[in-house]
Write a structure and sequence with these properties.
single chain; 191 residues; mainly alpha; Four Helix Bundle (Hemerythrin (Met), subunit A); 80% helix
Length: 191
């Protein structure tokens, strides 16, 4: 998956870090588009979704380039992770600023999204693998936001409902990860 796109990007001289930065810029633009979207201009949501998907595409592509062309580095992984957190914050902040969702639900979704990533980073720092632990990682969050945004073009309340669902699911994911870490550590002490 994405191997041919990675090959083209590599031929164009794009490094994983450059692709990460391009994805970050696209997410910043998506956040701005979401922030200026109004109920009178719902088609802006379509542009927001396109930018959101392009940002997610870059997020997947940078890792494939890094692995395929042996360009992975500790700093690159760190940079990618940091830019992804900013991307999440920009997009959700844009939705909150637009007034198209309940601001409390938006803030809970934002905190939950950041905590999903933070919980993984902290668990992996103590040696516990977190890959595929939890219901909604970044790709699933992007799909949820994009899906409800497309529905909201025709029925604006969908975006608010989607953010409420995201608020619930992200924090549920954090609970799943906390439970996984607790059980793993408890099992380790018994051995």
């Amino acid at each position: 998956m994405l191997a041919s796109e990675a090959r083209i990007a590599h031929r164009l001289g794009l490094t994983p870090n450059r692709v990460s930065i391009i994805g970050f810029i696209l997410s910043l633009l998506a956040g701005v588009v979401y922030a200026i979207t109004t109920t009178q201009q719902p088609l802006f949501l379509l542009l927001g979704v396109i930018l959101l998907f392009l940002s997610g595409f870059c997020d997947a592509l940078d890792g494939i380039i890094a692995r395929t062309y042996q360009q992975a580095s500790p700093f690159g992984g760190f940079l990618d992770s940091m830019l992804d957190r900013y991307a999440d914050a920009f997009i959700l902040s844009g939705i909150i600023i637009s007034g198209l969702c309940n601001p409390i639900a938006g803030l809970i979704a934002l905190v939950g999204s950041l905590m999903v990533s933070y919980s993984r980073a902290r668990a992996e720092a103590i040696g516990i693998k977190m890959e595929s632990i939890g219901l909604v990682e970044r790709p699933e969050r992007i799909i949820i936001i994009a899906s409800v945004s497309l529905i909201a073009i025709y029925w604006m309340p969908a975006l608010n409902i989607g953010i409420i669902i995201l608020a619930i699911l992200t924090n549920f994911t954090v609970i799943q990860r906390v439970t996984h870490v607790y059980r793993t550590l408890k099992k380790g002490k018994q051995n």
